[in-house]
Specification:
9 helices; Glutathione-S-Trfase_C_sf; Thioredoxin-like_sf; alpha+beta; four-stranded mixed β-sheet; Glutaredoxin; Glutathione S-transferase Yfyf (Class Pi), Chain A, domain 2; globular
Length: about 210
């Protein structure tokens, strides 16, 4: 009997691959993990550049050799394979359109503030300009989180009564700047969702490995 080949997830501790780990775990999708050091996947001549020429994580190599990048794409792939997980509303569900809007909004609006803010030197050579970009992206991120806090139902999950991919993003991303204490004081609904996801026994090992708690 031929042994099934699992997808291989390429990631680094504490990064966006933690979101994908959580999603695959909750979906019940078996996978193997290649954990890389930060900076390792920036090397242009390493083996990872053949997996993802953009040298960005997460990347998921499927059994047939197809490589999926972008956390939202991987999340939707897993949710479609495991509709019983409820991580994405079904295509004909009335809440599907709103779910897609907010999922893409997260990865298109908030996520890029880390892309630019974490490494401003890649975009601005002057030290003063790099510091200003870092501060501007931090300020913009907080404004975006306030917008999300005011816009979603949070009853009790971000989209309402069913936990979705969006809640997984919130649980991971609230661990990044400006971090949980800020959310507790400024965006208590987002903070409550993050705490609720944290409490899921199935994800205990994922959060411990990536964030130490």
């Amino acid at each position: 009997m031929t042994k099934a080949v699992k997808p291989i997830l390429y990631g680094a501790l504490g990064g966006g691959s933690a979101i994908v780990e959580a999603v695959l775990t909750l979906a019940g999708e078996p996978y193997d993990m290649v954990t890389m050091e930060w900076g390792e996947f920036d090397q242009t001549d390493d083996a990872f550049s053949k997996i993802n020429p953009m040298r960005e994580i997460p990347a998921l190599k499927l059994a047939d050799g197809t490589v999926l990048t972008e956390s939202a794409a991987i999340g939707l792939w897993a949710a479609d394979r495991h509709p019983e997980s409820g991580l994405s509303p079904l295509p004909d569900a009335p809440e599907r359109a709103s779910f897609l809007r907010w999922l893409v909004w997260l990865v298109a609006s908030i996520y890029p503030t880390f892309t630019y803010g974490d490494h401003p030197e890649r975009y601005i050579a002057e030290t003063a300009g790099a510091k200003a970009l870092r501060q501007a992206t931090d300020d913009r991120r907080q404004a975006l989180w306030h917008h999300m806090e005011a816009s979603l139902p949070f009853a009790p999950w971000a989209m309402g009564g069913q936990m979705t991919l969006i809640d997984i993003y919130i649980a991971a991303m609230t661990r990044w700047r400006p971090r949980r204490t800020w959310f507790k004081e400024n965006c208590p609904k987002l903070y409550a969702v993050a705490e609720r996801v944290d409490a899921l026994p199935a994800l205990e090992d994922v959060w411990q490995k990536n964030f130490g708690a």
